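seq as requested:
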Amino acid sequence: MKKIEIDLNINETPYGVRVLPNDTLLEILRDKLDLTGSKEGCDEGVCGSCTVHMDGKPVRSCLTLGLEAQGKKIKTVEGFAHGDELSDLQQSFVDHGAVQCGFCTPGMLMAGDALLTNNPRPDEKTIRRALSGNICRCTGYAKIVEAVAHAGNPQDHCPDCQNNK
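struct tokens:
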């Protein structure tokens, strides 16, 4: 198969990359661009660990061809932090102990961010629904739900938290 040059916009940075027509966006991110935050879990679009945003919407990068990403704005978990400063959502995950092995964390962050962008004050049921396509094998999800809720509105969910903003 012949490689094709494509242009990608990932985390507001342009990339020119040579890919095979059947390379997935996940393969390109991890193997060609060394953006390893998105994980390969199931390789079937079920677990959510490979989730990225494409034009603001969560997609499974293991099921998305790289060619489909050309001309779209891609955001990966690497696009959350600003230098050494974590985003509010990332910091909330740390503060609430929502990270254990970390394998699901990128997908959970991407799903949480997509929710909070459209609904900054979601209730627990809405958060659970937004995270439902992401499998965590370590937790009972409670701390992840708390972290997303806190990031959306710290005063409602954690009045005694030292990180209220």
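Helices lie at 25-32, 66-69, 88-95, 105-118, 124-131, 142-152, 154-157.
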